[in-house]
Design a protein that fits this description.
It is built from 16 helices and no strands. The chain is an all-alpha fold. It has a single domain (about 1-195), classed as ABC transporter involved in vitamin B12 uptake, BtuC. The longest helix is centred in the N-terminal third of the chain and has 26 residues, at about 10-35. Residues about 270-275 have low confidence and may be disordered.
Length: about 280
């Protein structure tokens, strides 16, 4: 069994993939805790697809896809945040999501080979992580974690009592935009590992699994990190030994853990339907 665990690590691409998978698992779990508590899963899914125009432009100009994705993600997050002040949140998200995604498809339709070349962008390819990709993931993920640690209390207060946050004169508008920005950055950081089509699962499923077991934010975030990391590592090994796509393998493990906990949890609390954890 020990040989089975160590054998893949003899290859540098597996070591890089493992590090990238763990980074993404941790960052998605930590930020995803706020996503679940604030009911922002739809926003995460919209952002993941709204970066497509940036990827398309970067692809056409032969620039790094992550650079185009990051610019598009920031613009999409800013647009949604701005429209939320004038429209319902789901309406603002739907407008930006559909418009940006349509623009991306239109741009990519001009490239005959885009369906092949961007498969890894859609579904991830952690075994193809280069040293540069790993550095980008580490920088983006590390930046998100630093912000989350520095402003943890403020984000928790905004999640549970926005009115009190305003009474205490917290910069609620700035914090809201910052949270949207971090979601965009996290989506870009996870591109190489799980792809845009699956990143929402890594953001939502580990925290949702943790919410079945605990009610306090700290333990919930810790358990979500454990589940996210475990899903990333096991998914990577399954990908290696069973010749499966890396991103789907990680998400399948993540979903299996959720179903197992859901079936065994004595409380089986409903998620995201008006009941929230206590901080």
């Amino acid at each position: 069994m020990l040989n089975g665990l160590l054998e893949p690590l003899a290859y540098p691409f597996m070591v890089r993939g493992l590090i990238a998978a763990v980074l993404v698992g941790v960052v998605c779990a930590v930020l995803g805790t706020y996503v679940v508590l604030r009911g922002m899963a739809f926003f995460g899914d919209a952002l993941a697809h709204a970066i497509l125009p940036g990827v398309a432009v970067a692809y056409l100009l032969r620039l790094p896809l992550s650079a185009g994705a990051l610019v598009a993600g920031i613009l999409a997050a800013a647009a949604i945040g701005y429209l939320q002040n004038r429209l319902r949140e789901d309406t603002a998200i739907g407008i930006v999501f559909s418009g940006a995604f349509a623009l991306g498809i239109a741009l990519l339709s001009t490239v005959r080979t885009y369906t092949v070349d961007l498969t890894h962008f859609l579904f991830g390819n952690v075994l193809g992580v280069s040293p540069t990709d790993l550095l980008i993931t580490a920088v983006l993920g590390g930046g998100v974690l630093l912000v989350m640690v520095a402003l943890h209390k403020e984000f928790v207060l905004m999640a549970f009592d926005p009115t009190l946050a305003r009474v205490l004169r917290l910069p609620t508008a700035f914090l809201r935009y910052l949270l949207l920005l971090m979601l965009a950055v996290t989506v870009v950081a996870a591109l190489q590992v799980v792809g845009v089509a699956l990143v929402v699962a890594m953001l939502v499923t580990p925290p949702a699994t943790a919410y079945l077991l605990v009610r306090r934010v700290g333990p919930m975030m810790g358990l979500a990190t454990l589940f996210g990391t475990l899903s990333a590592v096991l998914g990577l090994y399954f990908s290696y030994y069973l010749n499966l796509p890396s991103g789907p393998a990680m998400v399948l493990v993540c979903t299996a853990i959720f179903l197992l906990v859901f079936l065994l949890s004595p409380q089986r609390r409903r998620i995201g339907l008006g009941r929230r954890a206590h901080h």
